Amino acid sequence: MTRAAGLVALLLLGAAPAPQVDGARLLADDPAPLLSAYGLFADTGGRVPAAGVTRYTLNTPLFSDYAEKFRYVWMPPGTSAAYADDGALTFPVGTAIVKTFAYPADFRAPNAKLRLIETRLLVRRATGWVPLSYVWNAAQTEAVLKRAGARVPVAFVDTRGAAQQLDYAVPNTNQCKQCHQQGNDVTPIGPTAGNLNGGLDGHGANQLMAWTAAGRLTGVPTTPPRLARWDDAAAPVAARARAYLEVNCGHCHSRAGFASNSGLYLQHDEPDPAHQGIGKRPVAAGRGSGELDFAIASGNPDASILLHRMASNEPGVMMPQFGRTVAHKEGVALIRAYIAELK
Amino acid sequence: MRISAFLLAVVASGPAVAATITVAPGGDAQERLQTALIEAKPGDRLQLSAGRYALAGGLSLDVAGVTVAGAGPGKTILDFSGQKGEGEGLLVTSNDVVVRDLAVENAKGNGIKSKGSDGISFLNLRVEWTGGPKASNGAYGVYPVSSKHVLIDNVFVKGASDAGIYVGQSQQIVVRNSHATGNVAGIEIENSYNADVHHNVATGNTGGILVFDLPDLPQQGGHSIRLFDNEVTANNHTNFAGRGNIVASVPPGTGVMVMANRNVHIFDNDIADNGGNAIMLVAYRNAFTDRNYNPLPRSIVVRGNSYSGNGAAPKFPGGAQIAAAVGGTLPAVMWDGVTAFSVPGGGLAVKADGAIVVSDSPLLNLNLKTQGASPDTARPEVAMMPAMASAREPAAIVLPAAQEARAKGR
Q: Does the keyword section mention Thylakoid (chain B) (predicted)?
């Protein structure tokens, strides 16, 4: 799109304020040492998105040690994403996908005393997507680039009122790539049509429709696919479980992902039972097999390696290998219910 | 140093001038080492000074052409005893990488892994679980997978709860001059094509050298493997692999084992003092649903090996009875005699498509005939040495000259 056409598009949208995001800085080869350089937030504390930075939510999000996540996308003015059936939407060069990880002091009051831990960016440069992780300082006034990752002690009170402590791991650049790699390309994982096909926060305007109406998304079909919400009690357990497995495991466990050699493919629409793990013997699980014979033993969660590895916190056994340090009790319960009902 | 090296490279307009980045042990070793691995440029050498690096997490390299070198496997020690995360000690995902002259100790998962690397060299390394063989040790010591042009030379691995040296779903592989002891499997080549395994020592493992092929994987149909000039001795260790893993089915006392592979030549090895089979040739035994999978060993040649002291204490089911029936000691080579299997969904019995040729030992044939048959139905017979049939030997593996040159250099 030409600059003039971009301006026309802006005018058509009506009274869009001048963007504050520094699109040129996002595209520079050397990443900014400080997050504030990009102007993605209107405040110094990273709580208020800048003009043009759109918050979005996913039907089924990745579990990351119970961290609260705030997701945003920024596209250069006048540009739009293109619909894709499979995988992430096709975002234009210059796009920044932004995800902030945070913990409230007490999950029973999630909006009070929120501590930001890190903000991750995926920036679409001409040569491909680049992952960057910024870690927030104690004063919550700035986030600093950490290419080698970091470990951050975190304490919070959980929804049941119990005090929790964990050693939160900020991924290093290679780990970012390991999860986001499909074949030779780094790609976004979360913002697929199916996972965005729902209301903002589960009840607002449908995001695919809202983005289309705002001129930021093209090509959405009449009935786009919809990934189940993992915590939607009204949805079938199998649909919820397979959505959960796709989001939490499927980026690695795909034919083009890091775990391709396992032959275990956890996309929600994988048709082959053996590749889904049903009756599949382990290949290179090592002691991760937990003395069990099959990835998924139909009807028998306790005999299923997949569940054993989800429930473990031990390196060398646990899955995913990183991205969490504690088990997701609710996710484990969902997969347990799913395996139990398999015949 | 980095900037001047870069300028030199630009000015010289010849081959890039590699920088050497030195990393020393001490506080923040994790962050300094990982930062160096991330910031390395193609052609750089990361020189890890002598000493012990206490690491709390896995390390990873995703830059092509980098050499990661220590001061020697007894001097530069990457110690993962306190590892809190990740599935391996060091992970390499880029091409033309050399890892050399260092040790990895007590990784919680695998020791050193490469995935999807073309031209990966593991040279003069030690990977060890220092508490001795234990089920809680990591799975693989050196673990290239889905890789191409793999060189493993002068590597020592001890204590892996699966395989010390494990090459999976890879192609054009050389494993030489290496030593595997106290692992469940010493050296294992799985679902791989074109491998030379030679001048290695496999001793004190449950099984010495294994060549396997498994179903339901992106690369299968393993073939064209040569095992020669290896010392495969006294592999009688208790099997300490977790149940479920395929190597948990390897009986203690196994020297060389071939399962479901094509065109494997085993020659000029010294195979001694293994209590069970010096060489075992078997079909994959479990049920499978993969229509593209062939569970039979076929086109296997066994010749010119020297055998002594094997076969007196077989640990596989029925082994003692079979040994008693043939005079107390098993012949060096045992074949399960499976020559047919049913294609899932097809119902068609398929015959093996290549002979089993054993010219250096009497062959104990269990005559199990059909894949999945119970060992109870074995009708063991000792066959005379068959006449040498013509079976073309796989070509020697020739790695790219540049890769061999890197192996010779420091």
A: no
From residue A94, give the alpha-carbon distance in Å to each of A26, A188, A230, B63: 7, 14, 32, 24
Chain A residues whose CB is inside 8 A of the B215 CB are 274
What three-state secondary structure class fits A247? helix
Output the pLDDT for position B331: 96
The packing angle between helices B29-39 and A173-180, to 10°, is 60
CA B325 from chain center: how many Å?
A: 34
Query: Hunting for tokens 């499997």 — which residue is that?
Result: B185
**Residues comprising chain B, all counted:** 410
Q: Quick check: B95 and B70 in contact, CB under 8 A?
A: no
List, for chain A, all residue ranges whose pLDDT scores fall below the cut of 50: 1-12, 14
Residue type present at position B38: I
**What distance in Å separates the CA atoms of residue B296 and residue B289, rounded to the nearest whole number?**
15
**Cβ-based neighbour number of residue A152 at 10 Å:** 17
Please report the DSSP string for A83-106 in residue order.
--SSSB-BPPTT-EEEEEEEEESB
Residue from B366, B380, B292 nearest B335 by CA: B366
Q: Which CATH architecture has domain B42-408?
A: 3 Solenoid (2.160)
For A221, the 3-state DSSP assignment is coil
Segments making up each domain of chain A, as ranges: 18-227, 229-342
Residue A303, token pair as written in the block: 């005999």
Identify the pLDDT of residue A35. 98
Q: Select the residue of A174, A290, A322 nearest B242 (Cβ to Cβ).
A: A290
B65: region left, alpha or beta (phi > 0 left; psi from -120 to 50 alpha)? left
C-alpha to C-alpha distance for B195 and B215, rounded to whole angstroms: 20
- Report helix, strand or coil for A32: coil
User: Are B85 and A169 an interchain contact pair (Cβ–Cβ within 8 Å)?
Assistant: yes
Whether the predicted interface score ipTM is above 0.90? no
The torsion angles phi and psi of B17, rounded to 5 degrees, stand at -85, 120
Dist CA B349 CA B371 (whole Å) = 10
Neighbours of B322 (CB within 10 A): 18
CB A206 within 8 A of CB A198: yes
d(CA A74, CA A72): 7
In this complex, is the C-beta atom of B192 within 8 Å of any C-beta atom belonging to chain A?
Answer: no
DSSP result, B369-388? EETT--GGG---EEEPPPP-
Q: What is the pLDDT of residues B247-295, one digit of tens each?
A: 999 999 999 999 999 999 999 999 999 999 999 999 999 999 999 999 9
Distance CA A268, CA A264 (A): 12
pLDDT score for B389? 58
Position B386 scores a pLDDT of: 59
The B residues from 71 to 100 touching A (CB cutoff 8 Å) are: 83-87, 91, 93
Rounded CA-CA distance A248/A229 in Å is 13
Smallest Cα distance from B288 to chain A, Å: 9
**Residue ranges of domains in chain B:** 42-408
Q: Which of A177, A287, A321 lies nearest to residue B86, judging by beta carbons?
A: A321
User: What's the CA gap between A309 and A326, in Å, rounded?
Assistant: 12
In the prediction, which pLDDT does B345 show? 85
Within 13 Å and on the Cβ side, how many CA atoms surround B180? 37
Residues of chain B with pLDDT under 70: 1-16, 385-390
